[in-house]
Write a structure and sequence with these properties.
Number of domains: 1
Helix content: 25-40%
Structural class: alpha/beta
Number of helices: 9
Shape: globular
Number of strands: 12
Largest sheet: 8 strands, parallel
CATH superfamily: Dihydropteroate synthase-like
Radius of gyration: 18 Å
CATH topology: TIM Barrel
CATH class: Alpha Beta
CATH architecture: Alpha-Beta Barrel
Order of helices and strands: EEEEEHEHEHEHEHEHHEHEH
Length: 289
């Protein structure tokens, strides 16, 4: 497995699981929409305060999103997404010493994000929009390619798989082959099975239960389970009350080999992963001759 990826001017190693904190500069994201975007603009003061808090709590990466991709989300114009994301990335690059990830499927946003100081491009559509793959290649940044069945507006309309893990694995393998064909170094690519993107709750839980099959491959695996609706299929909780369940799911993913967890609740996730790492270290020490 790839042990580290180069993210612009920084390197992210996987000697321990890494935490990606979510910074949605949108008015309508499912859990935190509107918190960093007020009166039609990104509130940079609130954005930077949230970013500094997440970094202090243990985040290794900050993930900026300018387009809501929740089920049924309305499309956002290219100009609006550019304005939201570039404003945020410029502010973060100037004030925060960390890896900035940009959650986008739009080629122009990828290009401008790279220019402004982003280190990773995170595309829920797997770089399948026209020109997206070339923009990703030209950026020279680390990339996260995700699986999604359908589009955000329709993805939860009866998603079906012959075998959810095998189908996702085959999709990601094809995308990696396409990336390799345009000259992208696969040692800078992370894969994401796309929990909640075109999958029923049952399919999500099966995917998590069998996640090790994806994590045993060359590419590091990123998962986004935080506050997802799969939790509400078991517990009657609104998004803001799903922290404990989200942390539990993140731990289960890390146990199965995930190297990056994308979360809203950084501090709680950091504490849980610290306990997990301590147990792992203790066990390895006890097994030494």
């Amino acid at each position: 497995m790839v042990n580290a990826i180069t993210c612009g001017a920084r390197t992210l190693d996987f000697s321990r699981p890494r935490i990606m904190g979510v910074l949605n500069v949108t008015p309508d994201s499912f859990s935190d929409g509107g918190q960093l975007y007020r009166d039609g603009r990104v509130d940079t003061d609130v954005l930077l305060a949230r970013a500094e808090q997440m970094l202090a709590e243990g985040a290794d990466i900050l993930d900026v999103g300018g387009e809501s991709t929740r089920p049924g989300a309305a499309a956002v114009s290219e100009a609006e997404e550019l304005d939201r994301v570039v404003t945020a990335v410029e502010a973060l690059a100037q004030h925060c010493d960390t890896i900035i990830s940009v959650d986008t499927s739009t080629p122009s946003v990828m290009t401008e994000s790279a220019r402004c100081g982003a280190g990773l491009l995170n595309d829920v559509r797997g770089f399948r929009r026209p020109q997206a793959l070339q923009a990703a290649a030209d950026s020279g940044l680390a990339l996260c390619v995700m699986h999604m069945q359908g589009e955000p507006g329709t993805m939860q309309t009866a998603p079906a798989y012959s075998d959810v893990v095998q189908d996702i694995s085959e999709f990601l393998s094809l995308r990696l082959a396409d990336m390799d064909a345009v000259g992208i170094d696969l040692d800078r690519v992370v894969i994401d099975p796309g929990f909640g993107f075109g999958k029923t709750a049952e399919q999500n839980f099966e995917l998590l239960a069998r996640l090790e099959a994806l994590c045993n491959q060359r590419q590091p695996v990123l998962v986004g389970l935080s506050r997802k609706s799969m939790i509400s299929s078991v517990l009657d909780r609104p998004p803001e009350q799903r922290m404990v369940a989200s942390v539990a799911l993140a731990l289960m993913a890390v146990e199965r080999g995930a190297r990056i967890v994308r979360v809203h609740d950084v501090a709680a996730t950091f504490d849980a992963l610290s306990m997990w790492q301590t147990i792992r270290h203790t066990l390895s020490q006890s097994q030494q001759p």
